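Dear colleague,

Thank you for sharing your sequence with our group. We've completed the structure prediction you requested, and as agreed, I am returning the results in plain text so they can be pasted directly into your records. Please verify that the sequence below matches your submission; if there's any discrepancy, let me know and we will rerun it promptly.
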Amino acid sequence: MHFLYEQKEILGCVENATTIKRQEEFDGVRTMAALRKMLGSLEDPSVKELMRVIETQSKTTLAAWSAAYMREHVLPVLADCGDTRPEAAIAAVEAYIRGERTLKELKPFLADARTASRELTTTPVVQAAARAIGVAAAVIMTPTGALGWTFYNAAVYAYRTAGTDSTREEQDRLAAEEMQRVLASLRAAAVDNEPNPVKVDWGC
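Please find the predicted structure tokens below.
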């Protein structure tokens, strides 16, 4: 369930994950290939603290937190896209955490979300949202995704707030603001003295 773009750009610790090698256009709209696919910096103190807190939590806690953040903040972005796969994946993760689905039953939903993250490309915001959900839904399988989705989420927030034609400086400022909110959300969801914290290798 590893996403190649997540592993290359997040686990490989590429600063800002901003390497864009091609530009595509369709219907007069620039795709994510013409923009930074992720926003945020691994040097951001909020991101460093996110990594530290993630290391103290269990897969279940991280998966539940990721799903909850997607449901509240990211799924609404896709409300009008006509694709049910992202929401179905988050619902399946929530059901798994409640003990209402097995891991075997969950996996097809994760695969569907991953496919949707490649196919939903109508706007940069939609594509970033689909990718955030695809990575977040798979946190129960790939705990490092608890960091990975935050960079796509930051792009969603910045591009929705300031537009895709905004300056890099404005986008980076908004991404940093969103990372602070994400960190606050994780701190609120974190379990004190978690007995089964994840073991992650950030590749840094």
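Summary note from our side: The first strand starts at residue 25 and ends at 26.

Kind regards,
the structure core
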